[in-house]
Every structure is written in C-alpha cells, then in structure tokens.
Amino acid sequence: MKKQIFIIAIAAFGLTSCGVYKSYERPDDLQTDGLYGSVQTGNDTQGTGAMHWRQFFTDATLQELIGKALAQNTNMRQVDLQIQEAQAYLKCSKLAYIPSLVFTPQGQLSSFDWAAPNKTYTLPVTASWQIGSFGQLRNAKKSAEVAVEQVRTVRMAVQQSLVANVANLYYTLCMLDAELAVSQQTTENWKKSVELNKKLMQAGRSNKAAVAQSEANYLSVAASVLDLQEAITQAENALCTILGEAPHHIQRTSLESFQAPAVQTGLPMALLQNRPDVRQAELKLASAFYAVNTAKSAFYPSLTISGTLGFTNSAGSTVINPGKFIWNALGQLAQPLFANGRLRAQKKVAELQQEEAKMAFQQSLIAAGNEVNTALATLQKTTGKQQLIAGQISALGDAVQATEALYRDNVTRSVNYLNVLTAQTGLLQAQLGLISNRFATVQATINLYQALGGGSLIPE
C-alpha cells in the first residue's frame, strides 16, 4: 500500500511540474530607452533617486521634522500594521505545506430499556496532507510573498510622499517668511512716502490726489502683510497635521539656505528600484504571473493522503474494555474530468490579466520618465531666470531711488507721483518674483528628487 501511494505521489509531482513551478522574471522586452527624453544628466547608474533623504536634505532643522513625520505620522503607522498583516498571511501559506492534525475526542453513553448504559469513547488524531497540489500551494506562497512586497512598496510610497510634503511645506514657510520680510520693509518705505507727500502738499509741491494714492498703496501692502501672516499660520498647521502634533510654531531657517547636491538622473532602469509606483506595477505583474501558474496547476491531479491514529473501546456495535489502538490510512487522487471548459476559461482570463499588468508596468515607466523630464526642465528654467530677475531688481532699485529724488526735488514738475508709484510697484513685484522663482527652483529640485524615486528608501 505504501509503495502504491509513493508511486502515485511521484506521478502527481511529474504531472504538475509542467511550468507551474517557474518563478517570475522581469520581461526582457521592456522599453526603457529615451524615457527621460534628452535631459539625462550624469553617468551615475543609480542617480539622485538612490540617495537617502538625509543626504539630499542637509538642513538639520528639516531633517528633524522629516524624522518626526516618519515616526509619528498615522499613515506610516497604519502601513506598518498592514505589513505585519501581510507577513502573517505569508506565514499561513508556508504552513500549508505541513500536514494538518486534528484531535477530535468523542464519548457516548447508550442504554436500552433503562439498563446500565454502555460507555464508549474514541480518542483519534487525524492527519491530512495535500501532496499533489504542491503547484497550487507553491504559487499561493509566491503570491503571498508578492503581497508582502506590495505592502512594503505602499510604505515606500507613503514615506516618499511624507518626505516631499514636509520639505515642500518647510520651504513654503521659508518663502512666506521672505515675502513677509519684503512686504514689511515695503510697508515702512511706503509709509514714509505718505509722510513725504503730505509735507510736499503742505509746501505746495504736491496735491491731495498724490497723497490719497500713496495712502492707498501703503494700506494695500499693509493688508498683504496680514494675508502673509495668515498663510504662514495655515502652512504651519498643515505641517503640524503631517507631524501628528497640535498646532505650534515651526522652527526654520531661510529659503537661501537650501543646498541640494548636484542632480544625477541616472539610468532609466534605476526607476525600477527607486520608484514605489513602478515597483508596485511590477509586483502586480508578478502577482498576475503566479495567478496564471495557479490556473495551470488546476488542470493536474491533486493527491491527498490522510490517516487516523487513536484509542477506542468501540468496535462497531461491540464495547471492548479496556480500549484498543485503532488506525487507518487513505490516499485520494482527484483529477478534473468534465470541468475542462471552465478551467480553460479561468486560465485564459489569468493570461489576459497578466498581459494587462505588463502593459500597465510599461506605462508606469513612461509616466515616471515624463515626470523626470518635466521636473528637470522646470529646474533648468527657474535656475536660468534667477540671475535675470536679480538684475531686474538691481535696475528697479536704482530707478526707485532716482525717481523719488526727482519727485522730491523736482521744480519743473517733470516727474509726478505716478512715476514714483510705478517704480515702487515694479520693484516690489520683482522682489516677490525673485523669492517666488527661488522657491520654484527649490520645489523643482524636490519634485525631481521625488520623480527619481528619492525619499522612498526604508531606513534600516
């Protein structure tokens, strides 16, 4: 009997070995050439995306905030629990290889016509082992392993998003601080302009219209100061929400303190390791691959071996005391015969879903390459504008000083207050434009880092 069971098991293994034991391999026909367009920089294979966020963001204050967010953010803590859940499911799938044991003790009292009852009992331990379905068990285990990796990529995506969001909000606050400083200084300057116009009107060298216009401009800038203060409070509250803390003031440096390392885009294939969304797309493809293997294994026999070993005093209708040991063994082979149409349809559906997952994987690479191209192009443009705007501010500063001097000392009335107002407004807009462009440069650098997969590495 044992020899026959062994032969059946070997035959089942041979039947189920036709392709259902293959492991997932990345498709060799992926299109990665030209993913970045014409913007690829540097010869570093991995590129900036492989840098840990502490290497990329060197501001100690920002590093502390990012560390807090990763430790305290609710989304990070939830995804950590999800990883533990996935690992528990993986453990269950691994234990499926082990025979199941069931202990089912039974006892019974029976009497006829109120006679002394017979006492019977059975103390069996039943074992069951699915041998012929190892193809299904293996692919279920592989699918569970992929599921664990999928949750880990979700954690990577959450971490990447947190790092980028904290950095963006931090430098948004720095930008608002710079705009507030410029607006407050402008408020002071324009307040002096109001006082000057009043004195000139008293001396008969100005008029009420100029005074009213200067007061209106001063009040407008004063109002913008309040708007900026409100925006700072909102940005601080948003950052506190990410940190999982009550609203409070956020310590920070300045926009000018941002110093990022030289950007290296690396080879497009680096996106496969660094980008959580690309990795997630590939893991979906791997999951679809094992689903096809599972559908294939359904065509082959499934062998189940079961046995019972126990102690009983019940032998049919006879009661034997003391009890005796009892055992039995059973081998069962199940081969699908009339479900072939359904099994073929399931296999076809799994293969089509695998092809869909492959197309989605390729599309995720294309989308990632486009994000890199866009971020790098923005970074190049904002960097180029920086010196131009700085030159504009220098010229407008000279214009304001010259115009104010001519207006203040003008005897021929060739310069009126409208000229002064135009110069002052132009200078303010240019100063705010420089701050905005500097922030856009910082933001483009952060976006490029994120597009390359930066900030997603899970700390050891």
Molecular structure report:
The protein is 63% helix and 12% strand. It has 460 residues and is α+β, with helices and mostly antiparallel strands. It has one domain (2-98, 139-301, 341-451): Outer membrane efflux proteins (OEP) (Up-down Bundle). The chain is elongated, with a radius of gyration of 37 Å.
Top keywords for this entry?
single chain, 460 residues, alpha+beta, Outer membrane efflux proteins (OEP), five-stranded antiparallel β-sheet, 10 helices, 5 strands
Strand content: 5-15%
Helix-strand makeup class: alpha+beta
CATH class equals Mainly Alpha
Distance between the terminal alpha carbons, to the nearest Å?
Answer: 54 Å
Mean pLDDT: 80
Tertiary shape? elongated
Low-pLDDT residue spans: none
- The CATH architecture would be Up-down Bundle
- The CATH superfamily label reads Outer membrane efflux proteins (OEP)
Question: Can I get a quick summary?
Answer:
The chain has 460 residues and is of the alpha+beta class. Helices cover 63% and strands 12% of the residues.
Strand and helix map with partners:
Layout: H1 2-15, H2 53-56, H3 60-72, H4 74-95, E1 100-103, E2 106-110, E3 118-130, H5 134-202, H6 208-243, H7 271-274, H8 276-297, E4 302-315, E5 318-334, H9 340-409, H10 417-451
